[in-house]
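Work Package 4 report. The design task specified in the project plan requires that, given a folded chain encoded as structure tokens, an amino acid be chosen for each position. We show below one input record used in the internal validation round.
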């Protein structure tokens, strides 16, 4: 697939992503066998990953969505001022919840989600993030499943956006400097 102007290079191509997502699906299926599982997708970035991941999970599960604000529009730094824009439809008390995220950067968003969701008394609460930027971490968070550790570069595609665009790209690309 040809790249677009603002992409400097492809970091993770579609085949690489699909193979890793399949492996994550197998791991989640094994770990949650016989358990009641709810996947909580963090909108909007997690949606492409969720829809591929859930089709690789072989145990029965439900999906739920949550939207939170972490970045100001057009900025690349999370402010730490996270809030819920759209909440879950279901009560997660006593259930096994797995958060499905696109990327963990500073860790602030996921730390906020953990605090918020633990307060609702789930039986378990895990995190499955497609991407992880360990060098950017500000808040220490334990990630149960990670697709790829990536360097400190701004990426887009496969759900990740640049100013709300390019979420549809089937690969993860590094944005050209100055974009
Ligand atoms: P954190 O709170 O700093 O961990 O930020 C997490 C959120 O920031 C992710 O869910 C993304 O929406 C966004 N984000 C972080 N890094 C990138 C990136 O390289 N490209 C696009 N979005 C990103
Ligand atoms: Mg996100």
């Amino acid at each position: 697939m040809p790249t677009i102007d603002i992409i400097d290079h492809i970091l993770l191509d579609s085949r690489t992503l699909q193979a890793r997502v399949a492996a994550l699906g197998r791991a989640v299926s094994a770990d949650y066998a016989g358990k009641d599982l709810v996947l909580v997708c963090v909108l909007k970035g997690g949606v492409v990953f969720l829809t591929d991941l859930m089709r690789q999970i072989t145990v029965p599960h439900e999906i739920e969505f949550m939207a939170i604000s972490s970045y100001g529009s057009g900025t690349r730094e999370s402010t730490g001022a996270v809030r819920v824009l759209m909440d879950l439809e279901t009560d997660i008390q006593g259930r096994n919840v797995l958060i499905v995220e696109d990327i963990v950067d500073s860790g602030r968003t996921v730390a906020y989600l953990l605090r918020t969701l633990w307060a609702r008394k789930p039986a378990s609460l895990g995190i499955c993030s497609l991407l992880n930027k360990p060098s950017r971490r500000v808040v220490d968070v334990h990630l149960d499943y990670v697709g790829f550790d990536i360097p400190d570069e701004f990426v887009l595609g496969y759900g990740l956006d640049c100013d709300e665009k390019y979420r549809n790209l089937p690969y993860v690309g590094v944005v050209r400097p100055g974009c």
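Residues 19-70+81-154 form a domain with the Rossmann fold fold (CATH 3.40.50.2020). Validation will be extended to a larger panel in the next phase.
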